[in-house]
Each structure stands twice: as C-alpha cells, then as structure tokens.
Write a structure and sequence with these properties.
The chain has 271 residues and is of the alpha+beta class. It is built from 7 helices and 10 strands. The strands form 3 sheets. The protein has a 4-stranded antiparallel sheet. A 4-stranded antiparallel sheet has the order 2-3-4-8, covered by helices on one side. The protein has a two-stranded antiparallel sheet with strand order 9-10. A hairpin with a 3-residue loop joins strand 6 and strand 7. The longest helix has 20 residues. The radius of gyration is 20 Å and the shape is elongated. About 3% of the residues have low confidence. It holds the Pfam family Fapy_DNA_glyco.
C-alpha cells in the first residue's frame, strides 16, 4: 500500500502539471472503486480551474473552486499524467483531461482507491475529521505523543500506526523510526517517558523526510508519477532484514507480528 512518503511524492510529481490548469472533461471507465465514483464528478468538475493539490494523511485533495476531489490510492493505485491520446489500459479507471492536452489518469488494479467529489470542507468529511496531526508538522511533538499514550497498554508500534495519534506512519516507517529511536516495538505505549517520545518523534520526522527525498519505498507495487520507483528501500536498517546483522551492533534482526503486521527490530539495542 502506498504510504505517506509515496503519496507525497505523487503529489509533488503531479502538482506542476495540474495546478492552474482547467478541467476539460472527466471520463469514468469504472465507477466501482472502494466507494462508487458518482456521476456528479463528471458533471461538476469540467470547466473548473484546479487551484491547488494538497495532501492530508494518505489522501490527495484537488481543490477546484468550491469543491474538492478527494483521492486515495488504495492498495496499489497509481496517478500519472500522460498525453490525452494515450490509450487507456485495463485498469485505467478515471481520466481528468486538462486544457494542457494531458490527462491525469488513475490506475487501480485492485479498486481499493477512491475518487470522491466533495462540496463540503474536506476537514469535515468522515474520512478526514478524526485524523491526528501530520507527522512533519509542528503540531506533532513529543508532548503530544506522551499525553496521548497515558494509560495505553498497546504496543508502541501499533500506537504510532494509529491515525488518530499521528497520520501516515505506515508499517515500514514505524519499524525504521523505532529502530532509530532505540525503542522496542512491543513496549507498551504508556510505559514510555517524555524524553523517549521526543526522540521517537524526531526519528519519525527524519525517517519520513528521508523517504520522501528518496521518492518513497518500492517493495512491490508502488510506481511514481514519472514511472520510476522509490529508492528508500536501499537504506532500510531493519525492515525486511530478519536474520541479518543490526547496522549498530551486528545482532541478528528479529521479526515479530504486532497488530497483525510484520515488525522488525534489534533485540539488543532496542529496549
């Protein structure tokens, strides 16, 4: 599943091609995504100028006048910009044709993504209203995590992957950030003090920033707007490295299931 760095990489790749452009036509080839693409999108979006393309958590928000197109890439979705005469492929479900002669095209083989036309402020929509702070914002800090964790028995890895506490910390990046902070992923969230949470927040911010700079992580399905792949997987310290030496102390990396997700850690330097 594309995580926050992959979605942010997609946003940065799309923005120069779509912001400031006017929508000429919307073609919906397959409306049956995670939630149906309504006919209202094809009626309302054409003729509007795209004012901005932003991201909230793993959602992309295309602002056009008093409406927003809320998009999610699901498990293996991909957005790219191609010439308008490029033939559509088998899983190319949605085209937004622009006055530049290009189309923004959604490809989604598993159809777990979404394209929802909103006439309400996006922050009021049910998918966004309950989300926690952005991990790269000033609102996300050690004091916030420490306060949220009081009385919590859940493993800290599951805790930081809960979008109500902070958005966008997916499985790969949670394992990597906890390693950088020296915190065992199974430690109960409520048994971590403020100083360690401050280190964890800094590790999360640094891990995500490096992943964005590297264009994301390509483990199976993720491909960027330009058809290229991310490179962050080349610098992973623990994720997917079971049995290989820890880069700090050479202890074999272990794997454990936490919250039904594979978790990788060093049993010696993470406590």
């Amino acid at each position: 599943m594309p995580e926050l760095p992959e979605v942010e990489t997609t946003r940065r790749g799309l923005a120069p091609h779509v912001v400031g452009r006017r929508v000429v036509e919307v073609t919906v080839r397959e409306p049956r995504l995670r939630w149906p693409v309504t006919p209202q999108l094809s009626r309302d979006l054409p003729g509007r100028r795209i004012d901005n393309l932003t991201r909230r958590a793993k959602y992309l928000l295309l602002a056009a006048g008093d409406g927003h197109l809320l998009m999610h890439l699901g498990m293996s979705g991909r957005l790219r910009v191609v010439p308008a005469d490029t033939p559509a492929g088998l899983h190319d479900h949605l085209d937004i044709r622009l006055d530049s002669g290009q189309v923004m095209r959604l490809n989604d083989p598993r159809r777990f993504g979404c394209a929802l036309w909103l006439r309400q402020p996006p922050d009021e929509h049910a998918l966004i209203a309950g989300l926690g702070p952005e991990p790269l914002s000033d609102a996300f800090n050690g004091d916030w995590l420490y306060a949220r964790s009081r009385g919590r028995r859940a493993a800290v890895k599951a805790f930081i992957m809960d979008a109500a506490n902070v958005v966008g910390v997916g499985n790969i990046y949670a394992s990597e950030a906890l390693f950088e902070a020296g915190i065992h992923p199974s430690r109960p969230a409520g048994r971590i003090g403020p100083a360690r949470y401050a280190r964890l927040v800094e590790a999360i911010k640094q891990t995500l920033a490096r992943a964005i700079d590297a264009g994301g992580t390509t483990l199976r399905d993720y491909i960027g707007v330009d058809g290229g792949t991310g490179w962050f997987q080349l610098s992973l310290a623990v994720y997917g490295r079971e049995g290989r030496p820890c880069p700090r102390d050479a202890t074999p990396i272990r794997r454990r299931i936490i919250g039904q997700r594979s978790t990788f850690f060093c049993p010696r330097c993470q406590t």
